[in-house]
């Protein structure tokens, strides 16, 4: 094995190295791809930056355009006042458009403008040249003026010198005046010429600035054009990049997925590798431990035994704990060896505490429980038994126990509710009527529970009858099944701690187990038997017991299986009470009732003599299957905090059943039951009429295995066939039952006796107030709202004691009164009952305790 393991490790190491190589390659490829993406992303960022610069340049160009516009305006205003400036305004087109696309057109215009400006400049230069010439003329004139002035002075001198020459004075004065006028005119000309020259110089300067700006504009425009071109390119490039990035992303994702799958493979193989390694380590550790434990000398174990005996005698440990510890010592249990070794330095008290921890962990072990039953909800359900098998099993499974169920393979079961149903290849042979019969074994899961279905290959076609019970050969059918179930457990090699059988149909399991199967090797179990109803005992002529291999002579005795009221009859229920380790029934009150002669159905004496192992545990309900907040059968889901949906379900059911919907507040009363005398059929019938009289509506869902009761109710159903306030549906209908629980305001359960009853609990879960007789399980779960002896928080319905019409009327009328006169009070009651915990949680814990105690007792007895 070790060599195999080493080989496996070697193989796994190879696989691991290969996986690591692959992983490295993929990681490298991923890195390269990531690098490419980084470069592309940088380029993209650069492109973005350039686009931003282009946008800024665009804004800049717009600013320049504004300035140009202003300059143009200035020039045009100047042009209007001075002839030296050309008509710039007309020759410069102006585009208001900010669109970069119009830059080239504008550029052309600006070029034209520029040329005209150049021409203007040339003209101005010519003018300047002319002005220079004028300057020269002015110079000449100045010189002339100077010479004239000097000649004037000469003349003045001559005038003063020849004052006497009066005759010439007037002509000289006139000449002088003439000369003055000429000089003034020349001065005027000179001033004008100077002004014009200044203006021309200014215009020249402005023109040069303008030129510079135009040059700048041209440059900006060119740049803008370049950017425009490049931005278009960039955009294309960008798109290309995006596509590339997308492709790369996809590739990256694919490679990520690949990596993941490789990693997964790698992890799986690593896990496998680790598991194998851990197992090997554990095994070798255990071997080492076992070796150490086994190597301990017998003196060691004897010393331990004596120590436990001492503790027991000194009353330091209980008899039960002492027995468990002794058992562990005999079995050379490693844990007790370790406990002792670890306590070497401890005080005696500490050592005892360490040892007791071992017994407490063995007193609540995980148990292997196998139910052998005739019903299991929802696949094969007739009544409460089916609900209990599923509900209890689910609750025990939730608590960590291994729970399995063995059922007959009925032709009428709902196999669509079984997951992975398949037949096993190998049949299981079981004994019946002196020979072996093959059984086809089917497996599947129901509500998450593993189930075995047994299909007998017997000519009697035991489970091909179209119904679960009620056949003439029921005794044969179920005694055959009980034996085949045990045979299955034996042949499959099961070692259950508890075999739990239910009702008379599988009560045979208890005597079969002890009388036949323990000897065959199926000997690990304790037998638990639950009687769901003592009314059905399955008695039969004693001889019939032989068919399943039981010894009639040995069992048909008053202290064994003989029926208490007929010596020639065998009573399977009595057999189960006698041969089981644990006997339970389904409520404490019923357990009490059946101990009495009135309620015991002939078995009170038997129960009395086995009272130590007999206990009543109230059933729970499967709160997952029965939950108005998630119930898919309902039109509207609702809960205790939001009960509006209940009214909608009422409305819906009325419509479906063709009942009047006129008065929303008309109370709807329901009854869901098997129509058998136990259920108080005469009170159910009375309830229909009384409800009508009180102004309510009544819905009955039920069927009867008793022909005259079925007939009686068919007549009532026909009578009310098209009545607007009464409807009777005489069949078994699971989905309709959900609708009725949700729609009704009240549910009647007027049972004469009721082992537990589930309908009152389901009704409450759906906010339908129970009107129940105080008997059996009803007495343990329905508490009258007007009963002062009950703490107010527990009051949840209307009850009556005497099983007559008056008793029933009283409860029904009080319910109607509250419903009609105290709407809020009724609503509060509805919400309160919806919150009552009827789950299996606490009841399953009681079963668990019973199982564990029984298993511990068995172990202790074995040791003794
Ligand atoms: N006609 C019917 N259609 C559907 N479900 C029914 C019908 N009659 C009874 N039931 C269901 O069977 C179960 C009855 O359980 P219980 O009250 O313990 O009565 P019993 O086991 O005596 O029949 C409930 O789940 C109830 O809803």
From TrEMBL:
Protein name per its UniProtKB record: starch synthase
Record field: catalytic activity: [(1->4)-alpha-D-glucosyl](n) + ADP-alpha-D-glucose = [(1->4)-alpha-D-glucosyl](n+1) + ADP + H(+)
Starch synthase catalytic domain mapped to chain residues: 368-608
Pfam families membership: Glyco_trans_1_4, Glyco_transf_5
Chain coiled-coil ranges: 23-81, 107-283
PANTHER family: PTHR46083, STARCH SYNTHASE 4, CHLOROPLASTIC_AMYLOPLASTIC-RELATED
UniProt keyword terms in alphabetical order: Coiled coil, Glycosyltransferase, Starch biosynthesis, Transferase, Transit peptide
Signal peptide coordinates: none
Gene Ontology molecular-function annotations: alpha-1,4-glucan glucosyltransferase (ADP-glucose donor) activity; alpha-1,4-glucan glucosyltransferase (UDP-glucose donor) activity
EC number(s) on file: 2.4.1.21
A Gene Ontology BP annotation from the UniProt entry: starch biosynthetic process
Pathway: Glycan biosynthesis; starch biosynthesis
Family: Belongs to the glycosyltransferase 1 family. Bacterial/plant glycogen synthase subfamily.
SUPFAM superfamilies attached to this UniProt entry: UDP-Glycosyltransferase/glycogen phosphorylase
Organism name: Olea europaea subsp. europaea
Record-linked InterPro entries: GS/SS (IPR011835), Starch_synth_cat_dom (IPR013534)
């Amino acid at each position: 094995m070790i060599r195999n393991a080493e080989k496996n490790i070697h193989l796994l190491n190879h696989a691991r190295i290969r996986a690591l190589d692959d992983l490295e390659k993929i990681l490298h490829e991923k890195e390269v791809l990531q690098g490419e993406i980084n470069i592309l992303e940088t380029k993209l960022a650069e492109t973005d930056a350039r686009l931003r610069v282009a946008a800024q340049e665009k804004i800049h160009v717009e600013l320049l355009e504004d300035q140009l516009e202003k300059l143009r305006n200035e020039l045009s205003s100047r042009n209007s006042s001075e002839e030296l400036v050309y008509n710039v305004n007309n020759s410069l087109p102006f585009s208001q458009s900010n669109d970069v696309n119009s830059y080239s057109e504008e550029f052309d215009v600006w070029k034209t403008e520029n040329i005209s400006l150049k021409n203007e400049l040339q003209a101005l230069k010519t003018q300047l040249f002319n002005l220079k010439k004028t300057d020269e003329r002015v110079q000449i004139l100045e010189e002339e003026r100077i010479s004239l002035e000097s000649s004037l002075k000469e003349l003045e001198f001559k005038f003063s010198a020849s004052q006497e020459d009066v005759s010439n004075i007037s002509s000289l004065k006139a000449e002088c005046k003439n000369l003055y006028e000429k000089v003034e005119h020349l001065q005027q000309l000179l001033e004008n010429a100077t002004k014009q020259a200044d203006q021309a110089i200014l215009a020249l300067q402005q023109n040069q600035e303008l030129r510079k700006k135009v040059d700048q504009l041209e440059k900006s425009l060119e740049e803008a054009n370049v950017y425009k071109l490049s931005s278009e390119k960039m955009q294309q490039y960008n798109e290309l990049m995006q596509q590339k990035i997308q492709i790369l992303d996809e590739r990256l994702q694919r490679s990520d997925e690949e990596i993941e799958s490789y990693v997964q493979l790698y992890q799986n193989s690593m896990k496998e590798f680790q598991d194998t390694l851990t197992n090997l380590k554990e095994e070798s550790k255990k071997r080492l431990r076992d070796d150490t434990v086994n190597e301990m000398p017998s003196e060691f174990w004897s010393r331990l035994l004596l120590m436990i005996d001492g503790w027991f005698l000194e009353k330091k440990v209980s008899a039960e704990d002492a027995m468990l510890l002794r058992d562990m010592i005999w079995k050379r249990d490693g844990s007790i060896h370790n406990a002792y070794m670890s306590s070497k330095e401890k005080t005696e008290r500490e050592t005892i505490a360490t040892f007791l921890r071992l017994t407490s962990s063995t007193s609540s072990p995980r148990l292997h429980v196998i139910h052998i039953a005739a019903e299991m909800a929802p696949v094969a359900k007739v009544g409460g038994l089916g609900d209990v098998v599923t509900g209890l099993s689910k609750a025990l499974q939730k608590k960590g126990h291994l729970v399995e169920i063995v059922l007959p393979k009925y032709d009428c079961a709902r196999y669509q509710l079984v997951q992975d149903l398949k037949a096993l290849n190998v049949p299981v042979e079981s004994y019946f009527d002196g020979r072996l019969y093959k059984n086809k074994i089917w497996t599947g899961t129901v509500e998450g529970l593993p189930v075995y279905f047994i299909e007998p290959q017997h000519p009697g076609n035991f489970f091909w009858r179209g119904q679960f019970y009620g056949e003439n050969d029921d005794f044969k059918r179920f005694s055959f099944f009980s034996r085949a179930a045990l045979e299955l457990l034996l042949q499959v090699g099961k070692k259950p701690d508890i075999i739990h059988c239910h009702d008379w149909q599988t009560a045979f399991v208890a005597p079969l187990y002890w009388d036949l199967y323990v000897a065959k090797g199926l000997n690990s179990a304790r037998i638990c038997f639950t009687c769901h109803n003592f009314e059905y005992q399955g008695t039969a002529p004693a001889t019939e017991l032989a068919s399943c291999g039981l010894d009639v002579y040995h069992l048909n005795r008053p202290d064994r299986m003989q029926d208490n009221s007929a010596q020639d009859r065998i009573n399977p229920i009595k057999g189960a009470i006698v041969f089981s380790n644990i006997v339970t029934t389904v409520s404490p009150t019923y357990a009490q009732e059946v101990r009495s002669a009135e309620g015991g159905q002939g078995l009170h004496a038997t129960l009395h003599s086995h009272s130590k192992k007999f206990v009543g545990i109230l059933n729970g309900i499967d709160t997952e299957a029965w939950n108005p907040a998630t119930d898919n059968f309902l039109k509207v889901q609702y809960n205790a905090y939001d009960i509006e949906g209940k009214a909608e379900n009422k409305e819906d059911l009325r419509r479906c059943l063709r009942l009047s919907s006129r008065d929303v507040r008309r109370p709807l009363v329901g009854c869901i039951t098997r129509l058998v005398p136990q259920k108080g059929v005469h009170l159910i019938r009375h309830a229909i009429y009384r409800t009508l009289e009180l102004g309510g509506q009544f819905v009955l869902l039920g069927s009867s295995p008793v022909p005259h009761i079925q007939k009686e109710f068919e007549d009532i159903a026909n009578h009310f066939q098209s009545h607007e306030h009464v409807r009777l549906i005489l069949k078994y209908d699971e989905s309709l039952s959900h609708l009725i629980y949700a729609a009704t305001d009240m549910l009647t359960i007027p049972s004469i006796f009721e082992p537990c009853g589930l309908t009152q609990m389901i009704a409450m879960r759906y906010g339908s107030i129970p009107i129940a007789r105080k008997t059996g399980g009803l007495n343990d779960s329905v508490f009258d709202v007007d009963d002062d002896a009950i703490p107010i928080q527990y009051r949840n319905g209307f009850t009556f004691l005497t099983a007559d019409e008056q008793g029933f009327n009283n409860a029904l009328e009080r319910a109607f009164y509250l419903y009609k006169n105290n709407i809020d009070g009724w609503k509060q009651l509805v919400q309160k009952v919806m919150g009552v915990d009827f789950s299996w949680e606490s009841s399953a814990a009681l079963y668990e305790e019973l199982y564990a105690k029984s298993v511990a007792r068995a172990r202790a007895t074995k040791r003794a």
